[in-house]
Write a structure and sequence with these properties.
Length: about 350
């Protein structure tokens, strides 16, 4: 039985989103986050389908009409009623692999990043979507706590992650590093794990998800957050992370091509002033395009140009994520790609 953890650039059927309910934590920002999600749906639907889990029939009807007005092809939009606790599909969505070259979705346990937030409905969302016929491939449950934002892969057997998240006792307290590596190898088909010991973003609830820090652009290329301000409190940890990234090697011993991403100026919550986790590493790769979070910052244009060079042949699409970081995530955190052959026909 051959398992393969799919890289984000593997051909996709769709991107999954979870629409916020008015009574969620997004309540005070509902119009703003809905505008961001609308922009994402419109952009993604130019290239592939979008699956949206919605809280109720009223929302489903409203969004169907709204996206029709915005020119979204109904053949590329699936709105499925499945209530959730929050919007972070990257972490409660399924993880795509192939088994003997056939698509398979793995449903891992989601606990609200170690019990920080209510997550019971999020944790059952994938199963409920499967039960109503959303997926065309098998969906199998796994008893490991694992979020999609905690891992990245080159698609060739290498998995990248952070010690702060995967070794945190609030996730799988009975498993040490060798045990976690063994589980990841057995369940995802990877052959080695690259661990980052340094790096974090203030305001991040995830205990250091790698998708906020370092990302694969292709099997030979890593893009990473680089702090160039020695006076910024992030500087020591991100400088140490940069040293780690420079020392990483591919399976054949060759160094990675490194793409440093610019550092946006500090953004703070307008209510209580705490630092928000703005990062350009939280980009999303889809079929033929890369969606990049932007923050109304002077560094936005440099980030777009840098990622354009890292993804030749892809359209680079900016998405305003100032509202998203108010709830401590960004663009990639809101999404989960569904590999080719995994989404059932709809409409």
């Amino acid at each position: 039985m051959a398992l393969r953890l799919l890289p984000e650039w593997h051909p996709q059927d769709a991107v999954q989103l979870t629409w916020p309910a008015p009574d969620s934590d997004w309540g005070p920002l509902l119009e703003r986050i809905e505008a961001t999600l609308e922009a994402m749906v419109v952009a993604i639907a130019r290239y592939q389908a979008v699956l949206v889990a919605v809280p109720d029939a009223v929302t489903r009807s409203h969004l169907g009409h709204r996206f029709a007005c915005l020119g979204v092809d109904p053949a590329r939009l699936s709105l499925v009623i499945a209530a959730a606790d929050d919007t972070w599909a990257r972490d409660h969505g399924p993880i795509g692999v192939t088994r003997d070259d056939e698509p398979l979705l793995l449903d891992y346990i989601f606990t609200g990043w170690g019990g920080k937030f209510e997550a019971a409905r999020d944790n059952t969302l994938t199963r409920r979507l499967a039960d109503v016929g959303t997926f065309a491939c098998p969906v199998e449950a796994r008893d490991l706590v694992l979020e999609g934002g905690a891992i990245d892969t080159d698609g060739e057997g290498t998995l990248l992650t952070t010690e702060a998240c995967l070794l945190n006792p609030n996730r799988n307290p009975g498993l040490d590093r060798p045990a976690i590596e063994a589980r990841l190898k057995a369940e995802l088909g990877i052959t080695r794990v690259l661990w980052l010991a340094n790096g974090h973003l203030q305001g991040d609830d995830t205990d250091g998800h790698v998708d906020t820090l370092v990302r694969f652009c292709d099997p030979a290329t890593l893009a990473y957050v680089r702090c160039d301000d020695p006076h910024d409190p992030h500087y020591p940890a991100l400088a140490a992370m940069e040293d780690e990234v420079r020392n990483l090697r591919r399976a054949d011993g060759v160094p990675y091509r490194l793409v440093p991403l610019p550092w946006p100026r500090a953004r703070h919550d307008p209510v209580d002033g705490h630092r928000l986790p703005a990062t350009y590493a939280n980009f999303l790769i889809i079929n033929g395009a890369v969606l990049v979070p932007v923050y109304g910052d002077a560094a936005d244009s440099r980030a777009l140009a840098t990622l354009g060079e890292a993804f030749p042949g892809h359209d680079v699409i900016p998405i305003d994520c100032l509202s998203v970081i108010r709830q401590h995530g960004s663009l990639h955190c809101l999404t989960m790609q569904l590999p080719q052959g995994s989404l059932a026909a709809f409409n």
